[in-house]
Amino acid sequence: LITFTRSLVAAMGCEVRIDWHGHNDRGLGLVNAILALEVGADRVHGTALGIGERVGNAQMELILLNLKLLGLLESQDLSHLLEYCQLAAKAVGWDVPINYPLVGDDAFRTATGVHAAAIIKAKQKGDDWLADRIYSGVPAGIFGRQQEICIGYMSGASNVNYWLRQRDIEPNDELVKGILARAKESKHILRDSEVMELVEQHRQG
Fold it and tell me: Would 143 be classed as within a structural domain?
């Protein structure tokens, strides 16, 4: 469609910029926006979190994310996209799904032992660049976020040790085993308050 429009405009001898305004009826709003730019659209439209009439529009923050990772916005600071999306969601009374790319609570959170171990190993070697990319297709730091290691039923001791040390709590075998046992019994990722409760119980003997 963009190619046809460009050829039509060129044949008319007009100097007209071409915009792409897509909706998300088939779940392709983001893909179509990126493709529109690739084939010659001068501008594409999007909305915060894709919020719009009916099925919504292309997600502005995900358009920017992809353009950044494609090297097309190298000089642009996108570290406030989370804040932007949170403000937009609050303004319209919309809850951001926890698994929403880039800005969802779980976007950069892992409780899986093998993932956590890889991130921790990279950090221990002082390679923050690798730690931010070793299992995530989106480097969190570029967008003002960070990789988070949590504790759940698929976690290993490395998760617990890291979580505790991040909070200046020195781990020991008994404490780590107790937290892992609670995690294995749970059907959810342990909340910080749950882990701290176990820490306090351990301290009190």
Answer: yes
